[in-house]
Amino acid sequence: MTKLSKKAKALATAVDTVKLYAVDEAIGIAKTNATAKFDETIEIALNLGVDPRHADQMVRGVVTLPKGTGKTVRVAVFARGAKAEEALAAGADVVGAEDLLEIVQNGKIEFDRCIATPDMMGLVGRLGKILGPKGLMPNPKLGTVTMNVAAAVEAAKGGQVEFRVEKAGIIHSGIGKASFTAEDLRANFDAFVDAIVKAKPTGAKGKYLKKIAVSSSMGPGIKVDVAEIAA
Questions:
Q1: Cβ atoms within 10 Å of 36's Cβ, excluding its own
Q2: How far apart are CA 92 and CA 149, in angstroms?
Q3: Predicted confidence (pLDDT) per residue in 51-61, tens digit
Q4: Measured between alpha carbons, how far is 157 from 153 in angstroms, rounded to an integer?
Q5: Is residue 75 a contact partner of residue 157, using CB atoms and an 8 Å limit?
Q6: Integer Cα distance of 78 and 87 in angstroms
Q7: Which of 20, 50, 81, 143 could link 225 by a cystine bridge, Cβ 3.0 to 4.6 Å?
Q8: CA distance 141 to 125
Q9: How many CB atoms lie within 10 A of CB 13?
Q10: What is the DSSP string of 130-170?
Q11: Percent of the chain residues topping a pLDDT of 70
Q12: Strand, coil or helix: what is 215?
């Protein structure tokens, strides 16, 4: 096991691992603990009362963080002709068809989001085993299979993030950077949690929001009082 540095230990002991903090206090502590030389991401982790092995308990969707993510999102678009031109005009980083297919098949995936027009899905389907495990496969339910590629590109670059529950019922995501104001991080926190609540599946029984924690990239987790959210 890797030994913690004195600095890391000091940060860890600065957080009461039993106490449930108010949202604003937790965000403030996470910002204070972001002492790395880079602009750390402020992250949120939610433990949900679902079992994603069952189709009726899957939690997945997209949310637009009102204050943005603070990171540059690289977008790839599978499109031809006028739609390809629209995507480029909207700021897509790479646009193509068979040529883009070949690039991805060769293992060069230099993008964070992938969008496709419906007529391209026969082509994109060949990349399922490559894009699927990375969470990059275009999906109409997430708005990434669309004829309105310009809007999809702008949304991806403007603060839209995807979320999907993992096997243990955990969802985690960045909600901004440590350099953000506490108010902006709170706005993004609220938007993200609200999206998760609205995405509650029909098969979920009992308590849905079980635990929530926030942290900086290199800092300890700070438990949030879920009762405050439920209220």
A1: 12
A2: 9
A3: 998 999 999 99
A4: 6
A5: yes
A6: 9
A7: 20
A8: 16
A9: 10
A10: HHGGGT----GGGT-B-S-HHHHHHHHHTTEEEEE--TTSE
A11: 94
A12: strand
Q: Are 76 and 113 in contact (CB under 8 A)?
A: yes
Domain extent listing, the chain? 16-69+160-230, 75-157
Is 202 in contact with 54 (CB distance < 8 Å)? no
Residue 2: the pLDDT is 44
Q: pLDDT at position 6, please? A: 58
Distance of CA 72 to the CA centre of its chain: 13
Q: Which of 217, 167, 151, 207 is nearest to 59 (CA)?
A: 167
Nearest Cα residue to 134 out of 157, 103, 101, 111: 111
Structure-token match 């957080």, residue found: 15
Say if residue 169's pLDDT is above 90: yes
| Overall pTM > 0.70 | yes
Residue pLDDT, tens place only, 80-111: 999 999 999 999 999 999 999 999 999 999 99
Domain 75-157 falls under CATH 3.40.50.790: yes
pLDDT at position 13, please?
47
Would you say the CATH fold of 75-157 matches that of 16-69+160-230? no
- Tell me the sheet residues that pair with 174: 43
Q: Is the pLDDT assigned to residue 4 strictly greater than 80?
A: no
Type of residue numbered 102: E
State which fold the 16-69+160-230 domain adopts. Ribulose 1,5 Bisphosphate Carboxylase/Oxygenase (3.30.190)
pLDDT of residue 229: 82
